Amino acid sequence: MIQQNLNKFSIEKALQSALFQGLIRNEDTAVIFYDLAFLAARISNLAANFPQNTLHGLAIKANPLARIMEFVRTIARNTGVEAASAGEVNMALKAGYRPNQVVFDSPVKTRADLVFALGAGVHLNIDNLSELERVSELTLTGSSTLTGSVGLRINPQIGLGTILESSVAGDYSKFGIPIKYQRKELEHACITYPWLTGVHLHVGSQGCDVSLLTEGIGVLYDFVLEMNEKRKKTGIPLINVFDIGGGLPISYKSETTPPSMEEYVKSILNRAPKLFDPEEFQLITEFGRWSYTNSGWTVSRVEYVKHDPSIKTAMIHVGADLFVRECLNPRDWQHEYTVFDRNGNLKHGVDTLPYNLAGPLCFSGDFVAKGVLLPEIEEGDFIAIHDTGGYTFSMWSRYNSRQTPRVLGYQGDRFQMLKERESLEELQRFWE
Ligand SMILES: Cc1ncc(COP(=O)(O)O)c(C=O)c1O
After folding, report:
1. Disulfide: which of 59, 267, 333, 375 matches 326 by Cβ 3.0-4.6 Å?
2. What span, in angstroms and rounded, lies between the C-alpha atoms of 337 and 163?
3. What is the distance in A from the centroid of ligand 1 to the CA of 181?
4. How does pLDDT run across 20-46, given as a tens digit for each residue?
């Protein structure tokens, strides 16, 4: 079993150490941190739970930092990446991943994207029947030589999780080919194209429990077994690449226990026993949130504290630029928050009034959190927002043109620069 969340005491230690080493300068109004040992333990745990021939395509959309991509590549031999755009494929290759460690998923790939992916040798997941036709055309006309492998994204249509915006396996979805509505077309594709040797699904991200995730896999598993019987008869290669996507939820609150990877794997094995047989299948996984989120945290200085009759407002340096989902959909996305004084000492107790944590942006929804009970906050204090290692910096918004924060990784009290604070010149260049 692995640690679920970083606790406030380990954050205090790292914050004090960073302050002592002068790594939080005056201009560093906010800094993003990664506990690299914690992250490494996650990746090792992932590798330990699946057969050795599995490709763990960590979702770049959760964390596209080049230094982090390079770091996780060294942790387990079978670490790869899942790329959601040609840009992300390119970033992965630049970070040292071999093409066969890269999975390319996108529902809107252009012809040029397809030519690039087929030639580069990545694993390509086709999203829809029109894309399938394009790939068939490209390989038939010889405009592209297939050097990697190809799978088909299928929507198992097993229902939605608790978060609508991140659930993608309902009856309707903009992703994949719906198995109930287009089964005939899917069967036709499976017996027609010998190069189609993979299937792919992704049920949703956060808000989907183990039974829903497993049922999605089960629906595709039954389909693949049936299709492979047909393929055996016609002598074409069997479907042997099974991409289960990501989606295992994490906990953003230390008091709630999320399902473990061990639990998830047990559940998959119950429903789809042959899936873990390396003679029959190569599995691909695409865990983003589970891999990254709990290893990161963000600290912001408190610039001002405003006082209203029933609420106090701590004005901080990150808002909807870094916490897009939290500000736009606060019901579903909440973190834990810890207050430290200007020297990084943990503050205790609970103030008489609750706090709003307000960001610096010019719109009235720019609150990282509302009505939270915290110790008394003063100007110059630090507020740490926990569990920001995934789907946080990757969703950075340019609104109001604030500089992106410094990003530091640490192992014990050894720090390394993962990304420097954006300079005013770099910021200017974005808009030119
Ligand atoms: C196709 C695909 N794979 C993998 C993921 C990663 O999901 P998670 O970060 O929840 O593991 C996503 C995220 O939405 C996705 O769309």
Report:
1. 333
2. 22
3. 23
4. 999 999 999 999 999 999 999 999 999
Residue 105 CA to ligand 1 centre (angstroms)? 10
Q: How far is the CA of 370 from the centre of ligand 1 (A)?
A: 28
Binding site membership of 59 for ligand 1 (Cβ less than 6 Å): yes
21 and 56 co-located in one domain: no
- Cα angle, residue 341 at apex, residues 336 and 346 outer, rounded to 5°: 55
Number of C-beta neighbours around residue 155 at 10 A: 27
CB 75 within 8 A of CB 40: yes
Q: Which of 243, 261, 290 is the last residue of a domain?
A: 290
Structural domain for 326, as ranges: 8-34+293-430
Q: Tell me the CATH number at 251.
A: 3.20.20.10
In a domain, residue 1? The reply is: no
Nearest-CA residue for atom 13 of ligand 1 = 205
Q: What is the pLDDT of residues 332-366, one digit of tens each?
A: 999 999 999 999 999 999 999 999 999 999 999 99
Residues 165 and 123 in one domain: yes
In the prediction, which pLDDT does 115 show? 93
Pocket test for ligand 1, best of 43, 81, 82, 109 (most atoms within 8 A of CB): 82
Question: H helices of 50-110, where?
Answer: 66-75, 86-94
- Please state, in angstroms and rounded to a whole number, the distance separating the CA atoms of residues 349 and 332: 27
